[in-house]
Amino acid sequence: MKNLKLKSARAALDLSQQDLAEKVGVSRQTINAIEKGDYNPTINLCRAICKVLGKTLDELFWEDE
Amino acid sequence: MKQRSKKHLYVILTILVIAVICFAGFLYYFESHPDHDWSSTIKNTSVIEKTDGVIKEASHTTLRFPIQKSGDYTLELSWLPEGTSKEDVGKLTSRDVACGTLITLKDANGTVVYATAVTSVSLDTKLELGASEYVMDFTYFTDREQYVELAKEYLCGASMVQDWADLFDFNFGNNGTYNMSYDITLSPAGEINISRTTGMALGLLIGFCLVFVMLIAITKSHQLESPKYDERQDLERGRGYCYAFFTTMIFIMLVYCLDSCGLIAHGTSSFLYVCAAFLGITVYAIYCIFHESYFALNQKTGTVLVMFALIMLINLFVSIMNFREGELFKDGQFTYNMLNPLCCLTFFALFVAVVVKTMIDKRGGKGDESGDEDEEE
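Above: the input entities. Below: the structure tokens describing the complete assembly.
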């Protein structure tokens, strides 16, 4: 399932996938895979992304009801 | 930290140099103290003239092998028309030679320790020999009567001679001159060409060690970072290893089955086992390339591509040179020189994979700011 929340949070900060990847310390393809729903990140990676984007885990990675 | 790295490097280099010196010394000692000082290989050509069924040899072929130590020996014998090779033995017939040849090996007392009657032959056999001077002799026959006479004396009991004569083809070639090449080696059983084998193994070992040491030295001296992969890449690399492992295993089992059934030559199967390793490497690398996990976060794609291309071209050049000199395939077997074409093919496959992946990414990619579109480079 696509992670549109992550995508919009990233776009809100005017960050490209590459920018976010560098800040988090992963490859651009990993960020792309997370946003497309092709990869489920570990909790550590989720926390790192949330820290960079200034959001909580629920706001970025919880499923919509 | 830098000082300690240098110290480690010097220690490794010192150990390597000492190991090489020890090996070289061992090799020199072994070569200068051989167990046997006789020439174990005799190669030449015998000119046989056939006139009205009478055989005349231009130079009588009697070969001497002084054995100083009792034990098991291997006799490697080939007796072939000039211009043919071991691979042609199955295709040669009696018409290709002037006559049949009885080959005997006798000790100093005249006792026959080995005898065989052939038209042309390439064989090796184990013999148990005592210390003596052995003489190999060639006696020729053109018809059944002559064969029977020789067989009774040298080959088998009288009761079996006629059966054996029935199996022999006495339709020999017409009158003329026939050149027969012989290559005979008598060597202690299990003896290997220690210097060549050891030299090759040593060369490979030194080569690997040097590359390893150089990589460490360059990494430490330039304080280069070790490759870093993110968690997704580690996962994909793990899958890549898994696929490569099973591909290699399946290929090896397939080769083993074919070899066991005799469907492929033993020399070819040895080469195919090496191919299995290269196949595994290729599967792993291509899988990782297409799942964006081959290149580390801190690795430049261009540098690696150039390295692939260089390795490919160097191996291609060496392969072409070996092919032109006929060094890739000898005596019905692939030689160790086939490693170069294998390397060339492997790195060509990796190079193509990287290029194709890059083209796919460029074709499928749009800018990062494209809203809901999938974002790829």
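Note for the figure: Residues 5 and 60 of chain A are 5 Å apart (CA to CA).
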